[in-house]
Amino acid sequence: MSAVVSLRSNRRAQPAPARLALLGTGTVGSAFVARYARLAAQGVALPEIAWLCNSRTQVSGGDDLHAALEQARGAARKRGGFPPWAEGESPRPGDIIVDATASETVADWHPEWLTRGVHVVTANKLGTGGDLGRALAIGDARATGGRYGDSATVGAGLPLLRSLRALIDGGDRIHAIEGVLSGSLAWLFGRYDGSRPFSALVREARNAGYTEPDPRVDLSGEDVRRKLLILARAAGIALPAHEVEVASLVPAALAAVGEDAVDAALDALDAGLFARHAAARAAGERLCFVGRFEVGGRAQVGLRSLPADHPLCAGSGTDNRVAIHSDRYADHPLVIQGPGAGAEVTAAALLDDVLSIGSR
């Protein structure tokens, strides 16, 4: 009798299968669902998507994820109250939250979920690339609670944060990190040769989906600031956001207009950037939009003129390029380079983290 009781007890002790909740049904969330469905059709073992959520509604995943996605995307706007994902069934320890939003509110919940033993996989840069207090809380919570998959926050899944943490765990000391961290700005300055107005390239990039619908979001350098903060904090440096000096590309005339007038005001970019390009070319250099921090020194984001053989001048298209200077890489930095923009590569990075957490 005791053996039977023991067997039943062991069965009851088995943890419930992990469930997955997708927060965000926009471009990245939709790409995540599409990739999830492809991998599932190939027989890849994945946690069940139990819920899909956005700021308007929460729906069950079910067998037809594409229908659930369309239902969530077509929901009426919610007025007031708690977010839908905060009103429904709570995730239990071992579940996985996938944050495919750019929401400050969702980022605020990251440490809470982790403390409860819920894993978080995120493309939302505000978690560790925004408020320092929240970033520190996430660090504390991930040390004792759920796992935190953040490879999609910088470099869209390039082995960047993983490599940086491995260096530190191995006893290396980081001196500086610098990088071309914006795929849209990499594309713009890779194409810009002075023969066409810079504003024309911005319009082309926007129409191709490389920039946000309002390209001032990209040109402001704010996205690069957040990524630089994530890198610095992953390197163990508690860098506050306000200590990063950002030189925006947006002139005052362009910054002052409403969204409906942005297109006509883009020409305000042309004269200044043509002059900077001409000066760089005369010096045999190239323009790159770079984020850089030095341990014990300055943290800066802005346009730089670099020698043509500089590590950050390699690559093409929307490639991200990051150079890590450390004790181990004192004479020549460790350079990590590859596609760093787009919903597809971001979704792939999110699913890679989901699979990594599931396998452990």
UniProtKB/TrEMBL annotation:
It catalyses: L-homoserine + NADP(+) = L-aspartate 4-semialdehyde + NADPH + H(+); L-homoserine + NAD(+) = L-aspartate 4-semialdehyde + NADH + H(+). PROSITE patterns: HOMOSER_DHGENASE (PS01042). L-homoserine binds at residue 212. Residues 24-143 form the Aspartate/homoserine dehydrogenase NAD-binding domain. Its cofactor is a metal cation. Its EC number is 1.1.1.3. SUPFAM superfamilies: Glyceraldehyde-3-phosphate dehydrogenase-like, C-terminal domain, NAD(P)-binding Rossmann-fold domains. Keywords: Amino-acid biosynthesis, Methionine biosynthesis, NADP, Oxidoreductase, Threonine biosynthesis. One of its GO terms (biological process) is lysine biosynthetic process via diaminopimelate. Pathway: Amino-acid biosynthesis; L-methionine biosynthesis via de novo pathway; L-homoserine from L-aspartate: step 3/3; Amino-acid biosynthesis; L-threonine biosynthesis; L-threonine from L-aspartate: step 3/5. Residues 159-355 form the Homoserine dehydrogenase catalytic domain. The active site is at 227 (proton donor). NADP(+) binds at residues 24-29. Transmembrane segments: none annotated. The keyword NADP applies. GO terms for molecular function: homoserine dehydrogenase activity; NADP binding. NADPH binds at residues 101, 125. Belongs to the homoserine dehydrogenase family. PANTHER family: HOMOSERINE DEHYDROGENASE (PTHR43070:SF5), PTHR43070. This is Homoserine dehydrogenase.
